[in-house]
Design a protein that fits this description.
The protein is mainly α. The protein is built from 12 helices and 2 strands; from the N terminus they run H-E-H-H-E-H-H-H-H-H-H-H-H-H. The mean pLDDT is about 90. Keywords: Cell membrane, G-protein coupled receptor, Membrane, Olfaction, Receptor, Sensory transduction, Transducer, Transmembrane, Transmembrane helix.
Length: about 300
Amino acid sequence: MWANISTAPFLLTGFPGLEAAHHWISIPFFAVYISVLLGNGTLLCLIKDDHSLHEPMYYFLAMLAGTDLMVTLTTMPTVMGVLWMNHREISHGACFLQAYFIHSLSIVESGVLLAMAYDRFIAIRSPLRYNSILTNSWVMKAGLGVLMRGFLSLVPPIMPLYWFPYCRSHVLSHAFCLHQDVMKLACADITFNRVYPVILVALTFFLDALIILFSYILILKMVMGITSGEERAKALNTCVSHISCVLVFYITVIGLTFIHRFGKHAPRVARITMSYVYFLFPPFMNPIIYSIKTKQIQRSILRLTSILRFSI
């Protein structure tokens, strides 16, 4: 009996009770998705083509933009499929793969923000040795380490999903697959799948946030030791973009955690909306933050627009 039921596809869910308005809801979603693709895609192109941006700080920014693009491309097809065409069915394999990429990329993003904090720490503590410490080789190793941590750490909880029997409702609570959603539908002992993610979150998101906080306490201490007010302001200004991205990312993580843990009496639509905010707001905001607060990015954008204008 379990074997037959397990082959049934999962059913994705849009906004319960608002199905008639899905076409209207899809308009802002599509606009945000396109903005994310254009914003992060433009950042990647600028960093690739502009040699003045070939520095560790911008290599890490390229990793952040690439991660945001991948998160968007992972969730966009199923979300827009549900909102546009009410296409709710998703096979087990596709669902587990989507959950794997969604959660892995979230850990990768946290790791990239941690690496960027280290970059800012070195830039302020040892500005003259910055390029000799953060070499291209070091940046590549750090990037590879961040990717491996994200993608390898999600293998243990995702693999059991493939052999669990599913004999309960096959309806998921979002328009994309999440590990915690799929896990609850399994008719098996899911103790490991409940405990492992808690430990993983503590060792990644929580630990990364603590190290970032500690690094900025040290940075603030060093900056306060600078006698020149102008130099002090200049040093702090180099950190504003990164601090903004860190706040956007971790505030959405905390908000999502709180509403799922303590907002059980909150409307279901509110919980679902918070999930979308978590996956869409940071990728949407990061290019805007760096475009507004980073002069080198601004100059590259102006150079690109002038080239495009003359070519037309």
